[in-house]
């Protein structure tokens, strides 16, 4: 994208984006554009909806309650959705937001909170996760907003995995795995559908680890010789997957 | 390390650690152990100094001003220091702390703040960086505390690189590099001394990028098709380096 577009406000909308049509934004987005960012008639904005790519649009009304835009032209074609599934034991408050943001930056397709024995957070607002995913996509110019799946207990996830996910393999960073490079383990998964699960701050329990390691669809990997905090493991794990067999191509 | 040691307090000290000797902790560490953690005579603590590995120690005095310990036995041998150099444009406040913590978790040997054109933070307290590095090492059971080098301007760093760093190669995540997997670029550096530099939130300026790309010791890599925030790029970059040609073995 030309650098000039990089500094334009970028908003996610549900509506179709078609050249020459008009669109009215929600109250929240109108307030944001007109009152916070002080955009006026004629100013440019980028819109995306996860289906039609990124579009250059111009304000035709700057009312704080009801900004209207003309959809002008597509500036970036739609990127295909990611197949990468990502489950993580939710952390508290801003660290939870962080986990969702980083997952979006690293190109995950589905995000699912997974409740494990040592999980700290027990009540989740799905709207919060969705809002964070949308905001992260807006800020990092990601054209696909990951699906947020409902929170699920680890046992239920694993017991229902084959029925729900078919031939998808599940990678997990096993703290008990001897330190090694994950490169060869991941290379063997090239071309397959995969998921990554990240445990809570205290890690998986011994029983959870045993259960995971016994499942044929599970692929344990090492993330090196040091203990990683959950949020570090999340970014490190997603990065090595995307770099080695994912969409860093 | 046996799981029973994993929950013991772990503190960094400067003194040598020799079986059968006594050691008195600083005021701050004494207060922390005796008043905050409420440890008493006979309780176990783990000490490390970056040279002698990790040692099991027992309190012989629990005075809040002056905790004394008997050094009992080594429980983990010393890991070799890391040769990985890591420079980053400092971010503000807690995000700065975060950058240092993640670098320690990912096994960096030297940490150096680098001032670039778009760097947000212009005044740095070296003591803060060192304190963060020590705390991260304590929390993540890392036995080497990275050296913190003084803040340096990017131009000065690059102009003096060969004289200071010899044959060390400098990897940088180039947002302008077409999306690709960094695996082959990194494989070519296997066995060589390397560094990674992470730019500020706004990235490197065009002039800085041109200068970097023109230098023979610089190796540009891609970190995928999406824009990564500086703190994401830091963890992703360090993780792929360590996984592919570093100490994840």
TrEMBL record, chains A, B:
UniProt keyword annotation of S-adenosyl-L-methionine present: yes
UniProt keywords, alphabetically: Cytoplasm, Methyltransferase, rRNA processing, S-adenosyl-L-methionine, Transferase
Subcellular location field: Cytoplasm
Gene Ontology MF terms in the entry: rRNA (uridine-N3-)-methyltransferase activity
One of the GO biological process terms: rRNA base methylation
Enzyme Commission number: 2.1.1.193
Domain Ribosomal RNA small subunit methyltransferase E PUA-like, first and last residues per copy: 25-71
Catalytic activity: uridine(1498) in 16S rRNA + S-adenosyl-L-methionine = N(3)-methyluridine(1498) in 16S rRNA + S-adenosyl-L-homocysteine + H(+)
UniProt main location, coarse: cytoplasm
Transmembrane segments: none
Domain annotation Ribosomal RNA small subunit methyltransferase E methyltransferase: ranges: 81-242
SUPFAM superfamilies: alpha/beta knot, PUA domain-like
Pfam families: Methyltrans_RNA (PF04452), PUA_4 (PF20260)
GO CC annotation terms, alphabetical: cytoplasm
Family named by the database record: Belongs to the RNA methyltransferase RsmE family.
Purpose of the protein: Specifically methylates the N3 position of the uracil ring of uridine 1498 (m3U1498) in 16S rRNA. Acts on the fully assembled 30S ribosomal subunit.
Name of the protein this chain belongs to: Ribosomal RNA small subunit methyltransferase E
Species classification: Bacteria, Pseudomonadati, Pseudomonadota, Alphaproteobacteria, Hyphomicrobiales
């Amino acid at each position: 994208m030309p650098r000039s577009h990089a500094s334009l406000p970028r908003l996610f909308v549900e509506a179709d984006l078609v050249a020459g049509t008009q669109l009215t934004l929600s109250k929240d987005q109108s307030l944001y554009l007109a009152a916070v960012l002080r955009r006026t008639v004629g100013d440019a904005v980028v819109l995306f909806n996860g289906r039609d790519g990124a579009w250059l649009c111009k304000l035709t009304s700057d009312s704080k309650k009801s900004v209207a835009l003309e959809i002008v032209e597509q500036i970036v074609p739609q990127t295909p959705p990611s197949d990468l599934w990502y489950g993580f034991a939710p952390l508290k408050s801003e660290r939870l937001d962080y986990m969702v943001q980083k997952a979006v930056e690293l190109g995950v397709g589905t995000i699912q909170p997974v409740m494990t024995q040592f999980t700290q957070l027990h009540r989740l607002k799905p709207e919060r996760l969705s809002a964070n995913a949308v905001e992260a996509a807006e800020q990092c110019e990601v054209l696909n907003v990951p699906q947020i799946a409902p929170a699920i207990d680890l046992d239920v996830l694993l017991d229902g995995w084959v029925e729900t996910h078919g031939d998808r393999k599940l990678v997990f960073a096993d703290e008990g795995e001897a330190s090694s490079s994950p490169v060869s383990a991941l290379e063997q998964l090239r071309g397959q559908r995969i998921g990554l699960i990240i445990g809570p701050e205290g890690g998986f329990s011994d029983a959870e680890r045993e259960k995971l390691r016994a499942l044929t669809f599970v692929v344990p990997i090492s993330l090196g010789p040091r203990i990683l905090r959950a949020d570090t493991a999340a970014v490190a794990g997603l990065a090595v997957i995307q770099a080695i067999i994912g969409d860093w191509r």
